[in-house]
Amino acid sequence: MPVQLLLVLAVAFFAFIIGHHLLKKIGRPLPVIAQAALIWFTAYGILKIIVWPPLPSSLISIYMGLLTVVVFILISSTNRSWDEFKQTIMDTLLGKNRGYRIARAAIVIVLPLLAGILTYRFVNPAIEAPVELRTSHAAPPAVITVYPPEYFMQKRS
User: Half-sphere exposure (CA, 13 Å, Cβ side) for 157?
Assistant: First the structure.
């Protein structure tokens, strides 16, 4: 599993590098916030779908939390990338053009809707058969021999 994970991460890394280079070459580089989101969702997909045997959700949460911190450190490592990251968020909040206004409306609608759906799924009781309240055990033995005497648990017929 560790070798598989390293190979998959290496392939994803080189795919990002080649994709970034090609997009930069044609004059349409991805914004920093899009790069961060792409890295985050790709890592989640690798951990959730590709890695075998499946990882526990608590471990995936730890890895994704660590990855979030690493991505923010990466974004804030230079002033240029940090300013571009902040500017994208400010443009979305202020609605500088039609695209940002659509993105802002989608965020305002989708995030509360997603939170409501997840909350409903969490608190909705599952419809299933009730738990069996009594556990059947084997019948007790008829006779127990303890060294010399014999104890009869049931009457002899």
Answer: 1
- Write out pLDDT tens, residues 81-121: 999 999 999 999 998 899 889 999 999 999 999 999 999 99
Say yes or no: 67 and 117 in one domain. Answer: no
Neighbours of 100 (CB within 10 A): 16
Please give the residue range of the domain that contains residue 95.
81-122
CA 82/CA 99 separation, integer angstroms: 21
pLDDT at 157 over 60: no
If one counts every other C-beta atom within 10 angstroms of the C-beta of residue 98, the result is: 8
The residue whose two tokens read 């990002």 is 16
State the pTM of this model: 0.66
d(CA 105, CA 11): 36
- Ranges of H-type helices in the chain: 2-25, 32-45, 57-75, 79-94, 98-123
The answer for residues whose C-beta is within 8 angstroms of residue 92's C-beta and 6 or more apart is 100, 103, 104, 107
The position carrying tokens 């055990």 is 137
Residue that has been written with the tokens 């989640």 in this structure: 44
Q: How far apart are CA 98 and CA 78, in angstroms?
A: 29
77 touches 84 (CB < 8 A): no
Same domain, 113 and 41: no
